[in-house]
Amino acid sequence: MSIALPDYYFRVRENGALVFRVDTEDRNQRLAMNQIAVVNLKKGDIKPHGDRVLSADDLTAIRAWMEERKALLADREVDDILRTVDHLNLTAQWAQSRASDDQLAQVTDGLLLAMHDLRSTLVRKKADRLSQNHGQDS
């Protein structure tokens, strides 16, 4: 039974990935992964590894991965924020029903400052959006 492997493997790292070409044609029937490039998502850079020259197929596969990865990270970012809303609700319930005075003393100032900062940012951003939309209606 043979499993078809992808032509490329992307080892994810903080700002992108190391790109490997997957080679299953080794004469000893071993799997080989040869690094061909380094990707920086923030800068949009694709740098060949060493003195390699990337083929059009390499570049097409890498650019497709970059677009898919950016979309995935954007989806995860929104999901993380929605989870934060759940955590805030759970925190409110904890503070109301289970937290001891000592526990509340440990977290209250930090939570209040963070929530004030978040509220200020959200209100400012919403006002900006409303003023932009109002300007478009005129």
Overall geometry = elongated
Whole-number average pLDDT?
A: 93
Please state the structural category: alpha+beta
Question: How many distinct domains?
Answer: 2
Number of distinct helices? 2
The description of the largest β-sheet is: 4 strands, antiparallel
| Helicity, as a percent range | 55-70%
Radius of gyration: 24 Å
> How many strands appear in the DSSP assignment?
4
Strand content: 15-25%
Output the helix-strand order.
EEEEHH
Distance from first to last alpha carbon: 67 Å
Secondary-structure topology with pairs:
Elements: E1 8-13, E2 16-23, E3 32-40, E4 45-48, H1 56-97, H2 101-137
Antiparallel strand pairs: 1-2, 2-3, 3-4
Features:
single chain, 2 domains, 2 helices
Molecular structure report:
The chain has 138 residues and is an alpha+beta fold. It folds into 2 domains: 8-98, no CATH class; 109-138. The chain is 57% helix and 20% strand. The protein has a 4-stranded antiparallel β-sheet, with helices on one face. The radius of gyration is 24 Å and the shape is elongated. The termini are far apart.
